[in-house]
Amino acid sequence: MAKTKSREPREKQRGELNESVVKIKRCAAVVKGGRRFSFAAMVVVGDGKGKVGWGYGKANEVPPSVEKARKEAMRSMVTVPMEESTIPHVVKGRFGGSEVILVPASEGTGVIAGSAVRAVCEAAGIHNILTKSFGSNNPIPLVKATMAALQELRPKSEIERLRGVTLS
User: S5 DRBM domain: which residues (predicted)?
Assistant: First the structure.
């Protein structure tokens, strides 16, 4: 039976955190005795309640690289302001050749996103969102652009305070 590769990131539950392996890359270095392979993994970790982080780990085997990436993701977690199950306002994020636009959606819409952006949104606990990515479709800069966009979000109360008005 042939193995089928899934485009969706693998997910695990570790305690209260959701862990998604977004990408595993294999690198080959040609040495005297042949090829030496190493692996790089990108992991997104979130608690489903507004905290999310990403990590990138490299090792000679896949499990150690995933573990390194998971540890880095847990150290880099940030808080995402949310309104019910979506984001408060439209936001853009850029990293390298990738650009991501995140748009709040009404209840019941779901997560309309590609696999890399979906992994970040679901790990953060966002259940209703529309996204569009431009430029590179490489999952690594897409995750970084999504994280940059989520870090630009401001809660409605902060915007009201800064502007000195009340928003409906």
Answer: 17-80
From its phi and psi, is residue 125 left (phi > 0), alpha (psi between -120 and 50) or beta? Answer: left
Distance CA 23, CA 20 (A): 9
Q: How far is CA 150 from the centre of its chain?
A: 10
- Over residues 19-30, the pLDDT tens digits come to 999 999 999 999
Overall pTM surpassing 0.85 (yes/no): yes
Say which CATH architecture domain 81-163 belongs to. Answer: 2-Layer Sandwich (3.30)
DSSP E strand boundaries for 32-85: 34-46, 51-59, 78-79
In the block, which residue shows the tokens 């090792």? 59
Give the CATH number of domain 10-78: 3.30.160.20
